[in-house]
Amino acid sequence: MDADGSRRRWTRRQTLAVLGAAGLGGCLTSSGGPSTPFDEQYDLSTTHDISDWERLDRGWAAPSSAPAVETLETEVLVENLEVPWDLSFAGDGTLFVSERVGRVKAIDGEEARVVAEPADAIDAEAIAPGEDHESWWVEGGEGGTLGVAAHPDYPDPSLVYVYYTADTDAGKRNRVVAFDPGVENPSESAGEIIEGIPADGIHNGGRLEFGPENYLWITCGDAGQAPKAQDPSTLHGTVLRVKPNGEPAPGNPDLGSEADSRIYTYGHRNPQGIVWLPDGTPVVSEHGPDGRDEINRLEPGANYGWPEVRRREAYPGSGVHRPLANSGSPSWAPTGSLFYTGEAVPSLTNRMLVGGLFSQQLLVATVTRPGGELPPAENGSRHEGAWTDDAYTVTTHTTLQNELGRIRHVEQGPEGEIYLITSNRDGRAKDPFPTERDDVLVRLSGE
Predict the structure, then answer these.
(1) Listing from the earlier edge strand, what are the strands of the sheet with 263-266?
(2) Number of domains, the chain
(3) Residues 328-360: pLDDT tens digits?
(4) pLDDT for 197-232, tens place per residue?
């Protein structure tokens, strides 16, 4: 189906569709807060034991072969989305898709509906399908309705968490709010999770993911104020780790009496992807300046150096956490990512997949433990040297160059399939994008 609900023929199982549905109001009271304390509306208790994580594999090993990127094929499932930004599969199989223009859609079999349109979200825009003008700076800049994550026990509680840029009396701010798609009037079912995340036309972060222990992880950009990324009393350039109600997660680092206790790491520029290796190790992908994009292993309380350190040669002796990979001068523009554990595309199993915006490609990163056999680096890049984090060795390959355009996010489905979304209608795509069918939801297949 097209995003407006018109029907088209499917070549495989009819599992996904999008119907144009009437928007529903936001979830906040006029005062900006929930009408009832969040913990009194919903039972947010959930397990926080990593041994309950279905993807846990403490003895995992990275592949020693190169990924068979030449065998990958794409199948377009949905056309004419408006700058989709994130995907989240809930426990009951429902797929939630955020669109930067201000809404979240729930897709369940052949039924789809708009489940959230935050009333105070900024008025971001999408250019028309097939628009041949590269506007680069559409209304809303890099802000809008961004990350989405279903509660780990969804549909009980029936909560979906959304990260979006809001217009407030103090100017633009990013916030995380929970919505309940299951009630008649979602405007009465809000829960504030995080307020006052710095926002700007650039570097808004925005990714939401529930990790292996069912804590909510939130990536925050520096909002164009780079020096503040070195100040853990602010949320600029940070990764947050909180309980489902927004309180600091136990075990968060102590960064000093002035620091925000929700912060797990700081010194980031614009992190937009977070995954976990099968043993539970968190890894982020983040945008750099003029290239110098990075993949970083997160350690509690660590400083990742922005803006003081970003060039490879500056890391040794700097005292900041070294990256697993740094692109150097080429720009990946890495965004939403996935550590793939499924079997539908076997050559990508146990590899990290990262969407590329400016590079208009999919980045495939093999993360190898010390002593493990490394995959060939021909037609790829090995990231090693005094500037790298020696906990792993990363080998990167690329694929789908200019086949789909700007790949915004990669997600694993409940049956081990791989799904991609594009952001070709955000004014920044290079020719021949956007096409008349953009933006799209795609399923990936291959050897």
Answers:
(1) 208-210, 216-220, 238-242, 263-266
(2) 1
(3) 999 999 999 999 999 999 999 999 999 999 999
(4) 999 999 999 999 999 999 999 999 999 999 999 999
Give the model's confidence band at 302: pLDDT under 50 very low, under 70 low, under 90 confident, else very high.
very high
Provide mean pLDDT across the span 106-126.
Answer: 85
> In the numeric block, which tokens belong to residue 314?
């500056």
Q: Domain residues for 333?
A: 38-445
Residue 320 lies in a domain: yes
Q: What is the pTM of this model?
A: 0.92
Whole-angstrom distance, CA of residue 234 vs CA of residue 266: 10
Distance, in Å, from the CA atom of 229 to the CA atom of 215, rounded to the nearest integer, reads: 23
Instruction: Tell me if 244 sits within 8 A of 44, measured CB to CB.
Output: yes
* CATH code for the domain of 380: 2.120.10.30
- Cα-to-chain-centroid distance, residue 433: 22
Q: What is the DSSP letter of 227?
A: G
Q: At 108, is the secondary structure helix, strand, or coil?
A: strand
Determine the Cα–Cα distance for residues 103 and 266; give it in Å rounded to an integer. Answer: 29
Task: Mark residue 185 as left, alpha or beta (left: phi above 0; alpha: psi -120 to 50; beta: remaining).
Answer: beta
Residue 40 near residue 402 (C-beta atoms within 8 A): no
Rounded to 5 degrees, φ, ψ at 175 are -145, 160
